[in-house]
Amino acid sequence: MHPAVFLSLPDLRCSLLLLVTWVFTPVTTEITSLDTENIDEILNNADVALVNFYADWCRFSQMLHPIFEEASDVIKEEFPNENQVVFARVDCDQHSDIAQRYRISKYPTLKLFRNGMMMKREYRGQRSVKALADYIRQQKSDPIQEIRDLAEITTLDRSKRNIIGYFEQKDSDNYRVFERVANILHDDCAFLSAFGDVSKPERYSGDNIIYKPPGHSAPDMVYLGAMTNFDVTYNWIQDKCVPLVREITFENGEELTEEGLPFLILFHMKEDTESLEIFQNEVARQLISEKGTINFLHADCDKFRHPLLHIQKTPADCPVIAIDSFRHMYVFGDFKDVLIPGKLKQFVFDLHSGKLHREFHHGPDPTDTAPGEVGLLFIFQ
């Protein structure tokens, strides 16, 4: 039999304090460190992942670490399943290949991923525990509005792009694919759904998805692909939600730059919708195959006076078409030339081939300009 051990009063108080501290101190969540071996598996299996791309030498990265960890603890209590929400980090000095893969150029950068797919909009809110936690709560909220009566369709905001899914039941593979797409594209489109008896009048040939474009005159479009095929469904809805020619503003300029693609920009006066329509039509006609290699954009000449000065233009010269390669800006010829078949396409091909960059530094290629003629491209920095 072991002899009893009696603690002095100070030792007893210390032991009780340690016990209370152990019981009531919350368990902190370990932030997942990503590397080339685990990044795909971890991100692909996470419903939502917030990744902190950092550099140890960066003071702001060091300041964010404890905030990021505390926000992770808060969210982990609300979403305890390990795959619901993942807070992860990448040391960009140790894993420069990962930083390059996701086009990280500043630290710290917070990127959101859904099932392994990086969202184009990085987190730009406050760097506080509350702001980060609120951001994740928002990402976990249902992005789809349920329709209780088909009469609600008549009151939709037709200034938005609306995607409506009609399903027999919510617990189905068709709806799960629709929900997954909505989680990714909810910033670009309004998503709605109807089920059962409510949706029955619209389900003459089974579950279906309808796109209602902005305005009251444009006809609806029906999705004809496989409802359970995520890639096909996503590509169709993305094509409807994200216009081929997007507007660039001071609010989204940095975000578009981070996509890493050069810009083909139409500068036009805001009220000049005719030039914009011509540009949109010619981009769709000549350059649809170039989607993914260059961003097609339009900008308000009045608001973008300073960028126009870089190419020696003013709002009085608009409409103006230019390419911004992030190294130089190259100006297309006369705007009316955009209607010449293949002219706009050749302009973009000359960017990819390096011709525009070469001519910027060395002048027009000898074979491109006949003696006494002026070249079609006027290129300025």
Distance between the termini: 91 Å
Shape: globular
> Which residues form runs of ≥5 with pLDDT under 50?
4-27, 368-381
Rg, rounded, reads 27 Å
Quickly give the structural class. Answer: alpha/beta
Mean pLDDT across all amino acids: 87
**Strand adjacency order, main sheet:** 11-13-12-14-15-16
Q: For the report, how would you describe the main beta sheet?
A: 6 strands, mixed
The counted number of beta strands is 16
Number of helices: 13
Estimated share of beta-strand residues: 15-25%
N-to-C SSE series? HEHEHEHEEHEEHEHEEHEHEHEHEEHHE
The percent range for helix content is: 25-40%
Written description of the protein model:
By secondary structure, this protein is α/β, with parallel strands linked by helices. Helix content is 35%, strand content 19%. The chain contains 13 helices and 16 strands. The protein has helices at 9-24, 39-44, 59-78, 96-101, 129-140, 173-185, 196-199, 230-241, 253-257, 273-286, 305-310, 343-353, 355-362, and strands at 32-33, 48-54, 85-91, 109-114, 117-118, 144-146, 162-167, 190-195, 208-212, 221-222, 245-247, 263-268, 295-300, 320-324, 329-331, 378-380. It has a six-stranded mixed sheet, with helices on one face. A five-stranded mixed sheet has the order 1-3-2-4-5. A five-stranded mixed sheet has the order 6-8-7-9-10. Strand 14 and strand 15 (329-331) form a beta hairpin. Helix 3 (59-78) packs across helix 5 and helix 6 packs parallel to helix 8 (230-241). Residues 4-27 and 368-381 have low confidence and may be disordered. This is Endoplasmic reticulum resident protein 44. InterPro entries: ERP44 (IPR052643), ERp44_PDI_b_1 (IPR041870), ERp44_PDI_b_2 (IPR041862), Thioredoxin-like_sf (IPR036249), Thioredoxin_domain (IPR013766). It holds the Pfam family Thioredoxin.
